[in-house]
Amino acid sequence: FARPYLTDRTTASGGRFMAVLIDDSASMRLTDQGQPLLERALTEARRLIDDADEDTRIEVAFFNENVEPLESPQRDSSTSARESQKGRGSLRDLLKQRDASYAVTDYAAALRWANDVCAKSPARQKEVHVFTDLQQSGLAWSEAPLLPQDISWQVHDLGRDQVNNVALTS
């Protein structure tokens, strides 16, 4: 133990890691200009994945009150660039069509997942993209973690200016 040694985590540092969170809660069933918000989120997420460099490692998850990570093929040191693109295509295929759930939004659960996958990544550049309609009620379910400063957070607001499904609860 007196000698220095490197773990996989330190030797693999560098590169880019991207976590993509897509809100599939009930409010994402609403339409804007005739298109469901979830469909817009999927389209924008696919575009984001297509624009990423081939050495970018990508994790994708859907969230509502729970987080559902997608099993995606990832590139490792033995994977060629062609195989990486094929894996990226498989990830894109997982984002084809999806119906929004009837569940509520819990942003804290989504942020905890993003923090966890970013903490495991050895990449120097880490970013999280959240595709959502920013329902205020999504902040009320559980306590959200502090957001690390070394992670770039981007919220893609797909919501409408006025929502017509308002109800008095008390």
SSE-based structural type: alpha/beta
Count of DSSP-assigned helices:
4
Low-confidence stretches: 7-12, 75-84
* Strand-residue proportion: 15-25%
Tertiary shape? globular
> What's the average pLDDT?
79
Helix content estimate: 25-40%
User: What's the count of strands?
Assistant: 7
Termini separation (Å)?
Answer: 63 Å
Following the backbone from N to C, one meets helices and strands in this order, namely: HEEEHEEHHEE
Strand order of the largest sheet: 5-4-1-6-7
Chain oligomer state: single chain
Supply Rg. 18 Å
Largest beta-sheet characterization: 5 strands, mixed
Name the features.
170 residues; alpha/beta; five-stranded mixed sheet; two-stranded antiparallel ribbon; 4 helices
Explain what you see:
The protein has four helices and seven strands. It has 170 residues and is of the alpha/beta class.
